[in-house]
Amino acid sequence: MSHIWSDGEKLRRWLEVELAALEGWAEYGAIPREAVDAIRERAVVPTPARVAEIELETNHDVAAFVDAVSEGLGEEGRYFHYGLTSSDVLDTALSLAIQDAGALLVEGLDRTFMAVVARAEEHRETICMGRTHGIHAEPTTFGLKLAGWAFALDRDRERLSRAIEGLRVGKLSGAVGTYAAADPEVERVACERLGLEPAPSSTQILQRDRHAELLATLAIGLFAWTTQTRGESAVAGFRLVVYMYAFLCIGLGVVLGLVRDPQGAQPAQGAREKRNVFRDLAVLLKNPQLWLLSAIVFCGYQVFWATYSFSAYLHEKEIGLSVVAAGFITTAKLWMRPIGGIGGGFLGDRFSKSSVLVFALFAAAGALLLLMAAPTIGSHVLITVIVLFIGVMTYAIRGLYWSLLDQCKVPAETMGLAIGLVSMIGYSPDAVLPLINGYLTQNFPGAHGYQLYFGYIAFMSALGGVAGLVFKHRLNKVGAQQ
């Protein structure tokens, strides 16, 4: 498995895709067959060290690869990478790697399945205690227990094979999937050479739902193994799945951290002053506009958090909406994102970003107060309108508060530090709001707990509006002085 995902194998697959594409061009008649044969004869997989060396200049991995291969191709090298965009090579080669890695996984599942079946046959009459609810129940056989695991493994294999097969696709459709630089016939021939199917539709990349299905299948198998085979609780199974995704994200973060910053490879434009992060932080902490922006983000972000509780609140018996109706309304609220985000930005550009943001914060506070009165509102239509309005205001707030950073007079060289400071303060509700919500809904059952929670959020939203007014007043005051 480690060999499949090694740098050398990655470059070998890139070359395989490039050569398959050239075969497609030759059959299409755009590149002479003699040139393709010459390239295939001379092309060798470059070493990862050589590609890394060229990448220091190109700041692009595929461009460095193409240059490294072209060094030995002679005049015919002008056809290498003809009509392709980088993701044509990257995603198609990734599909090849997943097929190889998937074959190893399926092979391992097959061996496990056969071993479990053999043990099930061996112990088909071995008596053991059955268990239900964590205690002894009627007698059963150990072979029957193993048979259940064997059938689960067989279903896992079917799911895994289906997910892998869903990734047996390639694409050579160009930068945005329109075949502007390559004919679909070239893609068909290349994919056929590689043992893949052309993707029915793609953009610059293959759609990631295919990759998500593979990860989800692995997660389901992990959950089933934990709960069915090991007999642990659903909570333990879910925890293990969360760990899988968490460590996957950590691993991706480590990999990204090892990727060279393209800007870092370029020579510095003049000597840069060596900066002291503590001195820069001290300067930022003295900026009152930055503190006000942090308060606005802190308060506005909590409005977004409140929307997570809408579905459970609307399903409470005091309001009486069904699970389906409550879920439909809160899902419709998500579709307010383009209206609130784009509409808020448009109005901010046309009038004033701070003014529109202040309005959205106060309007959200008022709408949350109305939502608190939902048990006394007889019309479910009106409740739906209130929820959707809060959705519009939520996304308007989220779309606008970061636009105020430009008005905080932060030096360009400390902009990243300023964003980190505001983010640390502004997004800190992530750590406390679940605790507040849990305490209120547990100690005040029914709709009352949610009403108290929404009341708190409404207060914070209004407080954010006040901070926005102060922010705007200070801007106007500075403008008048200038």
Topology:
Layout (H helix, E strand, L loop, with lengths): L6 H22 L4 H10 L5 H11 L2 H10 L15 H37 L4 E6 L2 E7 H25 L2 E2 L13 H11 L2 E2 L10 H21 L4 H25 L18 H9 L2 H19 L3 H5 L8 H12 L2 H14 L2 H20 L7 H21 L14 H12 L2 H15 L3 H35 L1
Parallel strand pairs: 3-4
Antiparallel strand pairs: 1-2
Helix pairs in contact: 1-2, 1-5, 1-7, 3-4, 5-6, 6-8, 8-9, 11-16, 11-17, 11-19, 13-16, 14-15, 14-16, 15-16, 15-19, 18-19
What's the mean pLDDT score?
A: 90
Which sheet architecture does the biggest sheet show? 2 strands, antiparallel
The N- to C-terminal Cα distance equals: 65 Å
User: What spatial form do the alpha-carbon principal axes imply?
Assistant: globular
Provide an overview of this structure:
The chain is mainly alpha-helical. It has three domains: 7-83, Fumarase C, Chain B, domain 1 (Orthogonal Bundle), CATH 1.10.275; 87-258, Fumarase/aspartase (Central domain) (Fumarase C, Chain A, domain 2, Up-down Bundle); 277-481, Up-down Bundle (Growth Hormone, Chain: A). It contains 19 helices and four strands. The protein has helices spanning 7-28, 33-42, 48-58, 61-70, 86-122, 142-166, 184-194, 209-229, 234-258, 277-285, 288-306, 310-314, 323-334, 337-350, 353-372, 380-400, 415-426, 429-443, 447-481; strands spanning 127-132, 135-141, 169-170, 197-198. The strands form two sheets. Strands 1-2 form a two-stranded antiparallel sheet. Strand 1 (127-132) and strand 2 form a beta hairpin. Helix 6 packs antiparallel against helix 8 and helix 15 runs antiparallel to helix 16.
